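Quick one: co-fold with FE2/S2 (inorganic) cluster.
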Amino acid sequence: MVVAESKPQPKVKKKAVPIPKQPPEVRKHNFNEVALGYTEEQALEEASRCLQCPQPQCVKGCPVEIDIPAFIKLLREGKYEEGIKKIKEKNSLPAICGRVCPQEEQCQKYCVLGKVGDPVSIGRLERFLADWERARGFTIPERAPPTGKKVAIIGAGPAGLTAAADLAKLGHEVVIFEALHLPGGVLVYGIPEFRLPKSIVQAEVDYIRKLGVELKLGYLIGRTYTIPELLKERGFDAVFIGTGAGLPQFLGVPGENLGGIYSANEFLIRVNLMKSYAFPEYDTPIRIGKHVVVIGGGNVAMDSARSALRLGAEQVCIVYRRSREEMPARKEEIENAEEEGIICKFLAAPTRFIGDEKGWVKQMECIQMELGPPDESGRRRPVPVKGSEFLMDTDTVIIAIGRTPNPIIQRTTEGLAVTKWGTIVADENGKTSLEGVYAGGDIVTGEATVISAMGAGKRAARAIHEYLMSKK
Amino acid sequence: MYEILRTEELAPKIKLFEVYAPEIAEKAKPGQFIIVIINEKGERVPLTIAGYDAEKGSITFVFNEVGKTTKQLGLLKEGDSIWNITGPLGNPSEIRNFGKVLCVAGGVMIAPMLLQVRALREAGNTVVTVMGARIKELLFFKDEMKALSHRLYVATDDGSEGYKGLNFLKDVLAEEKFDRCVAMGPVSMLQKVCELTRPYKVPTVVTLMPIMVDGMGMCGVCRVNVGGQMKFGCVDGPEFDGHLVDFDQLIKRQRMFLPEERLSALLWELGGCGCGGK
Ligand SMILES: Cc1cc2nc3c(=O)[nH]c(=O)nc-3n(C[C@H](O)[C@H](O)[C@H](O)COP(=O)(O)OP(=O)(O)OC[C@H]3O[C@@H](n4cnc5c(N)ncnc54)[C@H](O)[C@@H]3O)c2cc1C
Ligand code: FES
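Sure, here it is.
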């Protein structure tokens, strides 16, 4: 009999298991999900790469502090149910976060394996467990006994949905007021089907409904009711504002009102929320020309460009005023876009649009940029090069240069402190300048991420709970 | 779901619906609008509120059966339901005692104008109303309008009833001084009214209904050039200073999706969109 003298050193597996994807040639013609998700075997293989560090670095990078090594360990042991429970202690929307979180800048950025090879694909493992659970049907957690307190949630984006779920579990009566006719916020109106299937958002929303949360759709707070009315006349004890950053920004250059020029929000709302890719079965139309230009370099620009391609554009060109290094979009999405044949034109910015006699855009004049010293954001500031104007032919332009907070609540709520950028002032627990009124997500931070909005919803839920329970 | 309490055909292809929507009825004010979605696959259609009754919990609106959605809507009957209605949206009209007000309404917008005239009257104004339509068969609410206005003029494009076109207003404006003009109707009519009032410097407020999607400031498709500034029809309006509006651009923008709208209506009429006419 041979006795091992010391434990064999586990071999470090440097390469991550690749995620199966639809091939670019196929996927650029359909709206189905691009990344197909790990099979059970692949997930187990990838999970086996985790070193189970005693002092895990990855957790530091997670905005909601999921116990990552613990859930990976459970996955590895085949204890999927317990694994997903572990994630859900901190994150109530794992199927969504597993797909759209910028993991390369969060958990995976800190993974020790990243120093010698690929970091563990934490997001893909999260997605695997979440999809496994969804396929089997959710188990609805027990709710605490009713507290008799009533909370209004404004906006059914990730911030609002998370706050609603947590407050409902704690036994409060929760009503969500959402201005649009479908819940999900950016998850339904912004992020396209091929990155986040709407059936997944639907499943998460159903889960929240099963927790007893009431969803009122088509209620624009500030118009149908104001916040003071909710508190004083409608019997709510607290309010959470999660209204997001949904206002499109325009360039302010001549010709911007020509036909064929969309804000990214308009374009994406038509395509995603109104499903105009299925026009005329769905009533809302969209018109895509042959030469589409997308202005901007973020995720929204990538989503717009890739949607335009799928709607049949012959050529899609992204025009960004800085260089590739400064592009704020996720790397993976830039790669996906380029694989699909989208062209990027760097260091250029539009100066005017030229229309035809019917008022439709036909050309865009741009100016060449060069990079100067860094600005407040730390990125190098683009500076126009004198006399470098040039023309581009185009018949469809999508402007994706950023979004600002929805202002209706701020305009109709007296005493609510607002910053000069129009965001609502709130502390780390979401407490605003008004008693019983909390806020979180993009409406407080400006455009950010799904996971940070969720984290804000969670912290606010805890603070609202404490506030309600201390109030006589 | 919003139940239809009453339907009425006011003129050929012009229908009035009264719908049970207590929360909107309680908050609605003259000048505001709603967004109607007929079913899960429907588009979001903005319609001006033409009446509200908080006690009964109802709102009314009037529409022209021109596109697919309004044609579909026109088939619904008392007791049927509309999938979703959002509102009230947009800023309410400014209603106070201006003195003498000229109200000009055309087409379906005669209905919300009635609401406006009543409110202006209650605020103590002298109200002179002009109501117009393409042909006399399309005029409605004449008696109601007459009862509420101090004076009523009727005009039709073909002259089949009342004045032919709006040019007669030149004389009216030359003779009397108005403190304000309120115009609601098709863009070409609004533009005409603004041309007529401009030389007399009558402050002219027009209700614009550009193409909308969300109706709450999120998409910007409703942008209009007002005095060189970009304004959103849905949240900055729907009412604007007519003398500052770039009507030519607005008309072009309203036609942006005309081919698609026609296709959609045609396919629906042929029953060929694959949705079984639902
Ligand atoms: C195209 C696109 C792609 C993106 N991709 C990613 C990504 O890959 N990964 C990532 O992490 N983040 C991504 N983001 C950012 C992310 O989606 C947002 O940071 C996040 O959704 C913010 O959540 P929220 O709950 O604060 O607001 P939102 O998701 O904006 O939800 C706000 C909700 O409130 C509603 N509302 C607004 N005003 C009112 C009112 N007065 N009354 C009632 N309801 C109201 C809105 O209709 C909306 O449904 C993307 C954003 C966009 C636009
Ligand atoms: S309709 Fe979308 S912003 Fe006005």
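If it helps, Residues B 212-215, 217-222, 232-234 surround FE2/S2 (inorganic) cluster (ligand 2) (CB under 6 Å).
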